[in-house]
Amino acid sequence: MADESITERIKERLAKKMMEKKEESRPEQSPGSEPPSPEGEERLSRSQMTLLSSYSFSSEGLPVEVRITRKDDFVPQYSISIPGIAGGTKLILETKLRAELVSEVKLDISEILDPKKYEEVKSKFLSAATKILSRSFPSLPKDKIEILSVYLLQNTIGLGEIECLLSDEQLEEIVINNSREPVWVYHKKFGWCKTNIRVKDEEITYDYASTIARKVGRQINILNPMLDAHLPTGDRVNATLFPISSFGNTLTIRKFSKNPWTITNFIKTKTISSEVAALIWLCIQNELSLLVAGGTGSGKTSFLNAMAGLIPANQRIISIEDTRELTLPNFLHWVPMVVREPNPEGKGEVTMLDLMVNALRQRPDRIIVGEIRRQEEAEVMFEAMHTGHSVYATLHADNTEQTISRLTNPPINVPREMLDALAGIVVTFRHRRFNIRRVLEFSEMKKSTPSILYRWDVKSDKIKALAKMDKLAELLSLYAGMDEREIEEDIEEKVGVLDWMVKKEYYGVDEVGEIVSNYYLNPDEVLEKVRNKEDWNFTMAKHE
Question: Structure pTM?
Answer without folding.
Answer: 0.79
